[in-house]
């Protein structure tokens, strides 16, 4: 009986509270605002009392700008290369102008995808004329299909890696940065008679 009486009092008090809120719209609105604020804190955490510190600037020489044209597989390939770069201390930047390395993941299937790559490489050439130390790489399907045309039309490109060799990007970038020249690599395993540096155009 005591338990029933206690439950009755709780329900009666809750009923009186609800009635009071309905009779007082201003108080009802205040309670609704409190509930909304509590939900927001639960979802996002409490508001910071001060501005969060800015993230550290990427190290000089290891700032990478990357873009991808074409299918979802290209996005996956770019994510794999981005992970390889991050493990070596490279950091991505949002603007081409801020980068030390430009990497373009390409496609030969989607309409106009290659036209977009050529246009982008024209912009990259002008950037490299201003900052000769920038390294430029073309990776993926277009590099595989049109490597000779890339070498001829875009001599400012330092790295041409095909669909089977794009995961060499980090090693080849560091090799070119150290020794200069250009790497054009589209075969996973070179023929035995080829020299170790046969893919290099020094």
Topology:
Layout: H1 2-23, H2 25-44, E1 63-68, H3 72-87, E2 91-92, E3 101-106, H4 113-130, E4 135-140, H5 141-145, H6 147-153, E5 159-161, H7 169-179, E6 182-185, E7 200-201
Helix pairs in contact: 1-2
Structure, described:
The structure is a single chain. This protein is of the alpha/beta class and 202 residues long. It contains seven helices and seven strands, in the order H-H-E-H-E-E-H-E-H-H-E-H-E-E. It has a seven-stranded mixed β-sheet with strand order 2-1-3-4-5-6-7, sandwiched between helices. Strand 3, helix 4 and strand 4 form a beta-alpha-beta unit. The longest helix has 22 residues. It starts with a helix and ends with a strand. About 7% of the residues have low confidence.
User: What is the global morphology?
Assistant: globular
Number of extended strands: 7
The number of helical elements comes to: 7
Strand order of the largest sheet: 2-1-3-4-5-6-7
SSE series: HHEHEEHEHHEHEE
* Radius of gyration, taken over Cα atoms and rounded to an integer in Å: 29 Å
Structural class based on helices, strands and sheet pairing: alpha/beta
Note the main sheet: 7 strands, mixed
Rounded mean pLDDT score? 76
Stretches with pLDDT under 50, minimum 5 residues: 41-49, 191-195
- Tell me roughly what share of residues is in helical segments: 40-55%
Binned strand content? 5-15%
Give the termini distance in whole angstroms: 95 Å
């Amino acid at each position: 009986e005591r338990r029933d009486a206690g439950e009755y009092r709780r329900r009666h008090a809750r009923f009186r509270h609800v009635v009071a809120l309905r009779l007082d719209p201003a108080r009802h609105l205040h309670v609704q605002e409190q509930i909304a604020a509590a939900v927001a804190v639960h979802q996002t955490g409490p508001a910071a009392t001060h501005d969060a510190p800015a993230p550290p600037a990427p190290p000089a020489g290891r700032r990478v700008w990357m873009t991808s044209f074409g299918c979802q597989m290209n996005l996956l390939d770019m994510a794999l290369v981005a992970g390889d770069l991050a493990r070596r201390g490279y950091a991505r930047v949002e603007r081409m102008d801020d980068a030390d390395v430009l990497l373009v993941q390409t496609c030969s299937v989607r309409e106009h995808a290659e036209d977009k790559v050529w246009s982008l490489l024209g912009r990259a050439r002008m950037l490299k004329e201003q900052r000769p130390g920038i390294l430029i790489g073309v990776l993926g399907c277009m590099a595989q299909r049109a490597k000779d045309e890339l070498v001829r039309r875009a001599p400012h490109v330092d790295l041409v890696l095909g669909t089977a060799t794009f995961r060499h990007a980090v090693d080849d970038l560091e090799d070119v940065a150290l020794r200069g020249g250009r790497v054009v690599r589209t075969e996973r395993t070179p023929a035995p008679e080829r020299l170790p540096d046969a893919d290099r155009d020094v």
